[in-house]
Write a structure and sequence with these properties.
about 200 residues; alpha/beta; Maf protein; 7-stranded mixed beta sheet; 5 helices; about 30% helix
Length: about 200
């Protein structure tokens, strides 16, 4: 049986590392957008993680000869009415960076007590081929927002996302620890189980 091509439709290096690690061992030839400059960039305009994930998946699956995996993920903070949500990566505006996004988040939560700093990381993964959506998978993990960054691992909002069951921020977890409990890990394990069956019939 030959390997199937799978395009990971993201340029985020942190996400690429996590996705490749979680898909390791499957009968797939994994490629990333960095290796395909001929593919135009998809502009996210959806109002939900599902809309962005599915839109991105369909967009690239019309142009790529193989399977396409697209995901959209972000942070939802209860005290901010669910923000930053789909705007997580660009929360601080033009020139947004992980540091600037965290600084804005902490400014907005400065007067919010610890007990009310509940938040969730959400991830929606879509799998498609030839312009058709095959299946979507969703993962969520609940935690609290710290008052200051803690830890050096991970990316995005990991330094301020505290996970009570392990009593650590996501940025203090080793990659293998984080993947066991994270929103992306939960969604990707569902996808992996699906792909194991899907690839056996192809």
């Amino acid at each position: 049986m030959t390997e199937q091509r799978l395009l990971l439709a993201t340029t985020n290096r942190g996400k690429l590392r996590e996705l490749k690690r979680l898909l390791r061992g499957l009968r797939l030839k994994i490629e990333s957008l960095d290796r395909h400059p001929e593919l135009k960039k998809y502009r996210e305009t959806g109002k939900s993680f599902e809309a962005n994930s599915q839109g991105k998946c369909l967009f690239y699956s019309r142009k790529f000869d193989g399977l396409v995996l697209a995901e959209d993920s972000g942070l939802e903070v209860e005290a901010l009415g669910g923000r930053p949500g789909v705007y997580s990566a660009r929360f601080s505006g033009p020139g947004a960076s992980d540091r600037k996004n965290i600084e804005k988040l902490l400014r907005l939560l400065a007067a919010v007590p610890a007990a009310r700093r509940r938040a969730s990381f959400v991830c929606v993964v879509s799998l498609g081929k030839n312009g058709h959506l095959i299946k979507c998978f969703r993962g969520r993990v609940r935690g609290l927002i710290l008052s200051e960054p803690d830890g050096k691992n991970g990316f995005g909002y990991d330094p301020v996302f505290y996970y009570p069951p392990l009593r650590k921020s996501f940025a203090r977890l080793r990659p293998e620890e984080k993947n066991l409990v994270s929103h992306r890990g939960r969604a990707l394990r569902k996808l992996r189980r699906f792909l194991e069956n899907y690839l056996q019939t192809r």
